[in-house]
Amino acid sequence: MKTVETDRNTGEISRRTFLKNTAGSVALSVAGGASIEGTPVFPTYSNNPITMASEKSLIGAYGPWAASLLPAQPPLSFRHEKWNNIDAWRKEALGKTKELVSAPVKPTLPKVTVRKKYVYDGLEIEELSWQLPYGRPAEAVLLKPAGTTKPLPGILGLHDHAGMKYFGLRKIVKTSDTQHPILKEHQETDYGGRAWANEIAKQGHVVLVHDTYAFGSRRVYYEDTKGLNWGAVSTEGKSDADPENAENIRSYNAWSSEHEHVMSKSLFSAGTTWPGVFLMEDQVALDILADRKDVDPKRLGCGGLSGGGLRTVYLAGLDPRIKCAVCVGFMTTWNDLILNKSFNHTWMTYTPLLPKFLDFPEILGLRVPLPTLVLNNNQDELYTLPEMKQADAILTEVFRKAGASDKYKASFYDGPHKFDADMQHEAFAWFKKWL
Questions:
Q1: Mean of the pLDDT values across residues 64-93?
Q2: What is the mean pLDDT of residues 272-301?
Q3: Which of 59, 88, 275, 410 is deepest in the core (most CB within 10 A)?
Q4: H or E segment to which residue 176 belongs
Q5: Which pLDDT tens digit goes with each residue over 389-407?
Q6: Per-residue DSSP letter, 109
Q7: Is the pTM of this model over 0.85?
Q8: What single string gives the DSSP state of each residue in 53-105?
Q9: Backbone φ, ψ for residue 216 (5° rounding)
Q10: Please, what are the domains in the chain?
């Protein structure tokens, strides 16, 4: 059994270490597939039920059959020849997507409490909170250039997953010179040592970053659960005055990772989905951002890395108030997830039955012709490069057919899963151009 290395200072298991230990290192190339960083890559079998049983996949000999269930041209794809009127297509495609995402009903605008105000690093910062109809209060941080006197474009900064549900918004902001070692390391490895929400705020935006469902202030508290006789959150020998002890955080993150299976089943049983809950909570945050006097509600954007990229796909795809979107490190096809990569993706990705109607990139494509930027990494551990390229081809065709080729761009950077300084530079320029 392989051992998993942890950081000797924080005790945190890094995503890359986890993937290295779980994905294995055996390369395989079959039927025209290519090997990327030791990960098997499999060809597309869409609408082709006759395949070789010897070809391997994540689900063994069932992989080719499962992939063949995907329609070669999803019926609600704007690429489909039957769609020539973009308004008629959008009405039907959005309607079906919203039905399947099944988001809970969005509440009225909640009362926002300003918990603290101060200036740091040239930014006016507000620590906010609001109460949704369920769960503990959501905490948020708002950042804007100090001395702002007129409405500015607003950006909803969407934090990542990273296997760390103990933290939420704090992964992409910095509000003082003191920072938890786990967060400092995370920003070094995934963000080029920068708090990207701070950096984009400095360029003339009002940026709101909130804890979303099951993260940070919205996380599932172990002491609130019952009926689970597996797993534990370590507090033995730790002072109650030190809730952010690295060992406690490591234990919580490991427990909450396993708890995703439970949460997903419960959400499905309740008639909703994790993407639906994300969508609703992110739309509430967007309501709050748009309602501010220092924000121009006609110039709103959103973006994020990884789990933040996933949230961008659903929010920007389904809410036309997002006039500019930047999806980072979360773009591939359903085919890639079926055959190659579902094992290292969160349950938060999936909307049951939606693949029958749209390929994954086409969820984001629902926003066409609004400006959309997708940033990828060639050696991203979470996807295969051929399917990332296929996703780009799909979105390119969607925007071309809508006569909006200038509103879509995808870039590919060398390196693993990240949103580093060079990628941020391109993202910020995109926001500046369109907002």
A1: 96
A2: 98
A3: 275
A4: none
A5: 999 999 999 999 999 999 9
A6: P
A7: yes
A8: TT---TTTTHHHHHHHTS-SS-TT-TTSTT---HHHHHHHHHHHHHHHH-PPP
A9: 55, -125
A10: 82-221+243-435 (3.40.50.1820)
